[in-house]
Amino acid sequence: MSVYQINKLCRQLYRDSALRDAVKADPRKAIADWPLSAEEREALLSGDIRRLYEWGAHPFLLGHITRWDLFGVTPAIYAERIHGARDPA
Q1: Torsion region of 71: left, alpha or beta (phi above 0 gives left; psi -120 to 50 gives alpha)
Q2: How far apart are CA 16 and CA 89, in angstroms?
Q3: What are the φ and ψ backbone dihedral angles of 29, each rounded to 5 degrees?
Q4: Residues in CB range of 56: below 8 A, 6 or more apart
Q5: Helices first, then strands: H and E counts in the chain
Q6: pTM
Q7: pLDDT at 89
Q8: Full 3-state SS string of 31-52
Q9: Which of 4, 23, 45, 75 is the most buried (most CB within 10 A)?
Q10: Structure confidence by residue, pLDDT tens digits, 35-55
Q11: Domain residues of the chain, as ranges?
């Protein structure tokens, strides 16, 4: 598992409008070439913010996906799903 890749993807989503558009159109296809484990990929695709955070993904970077409602995660859903998460540290 590479939390670095999750963080890197979240950062890239902020910077790359073409990637954002691809994720909106077909999230599974858009992240197919990213070096993620099957668990990471499914957590992203299902919008499992809590799990990603508990694995060590940075909450600021995870927040980037809410700006464009990527992976079905709005700001309200983000707040709901991260609530009660254990600090990965």
Answers
A1: left
A2: 29
A3: -65, -40
A4: 3, 88
A5: 7, 0
A6: 0.88
A7: 59
A8: CCCCCCCHHHHHHHHCCCHHHH
A9: 23
A10: 999 999 999 999 999 999 999
A11: 3-82
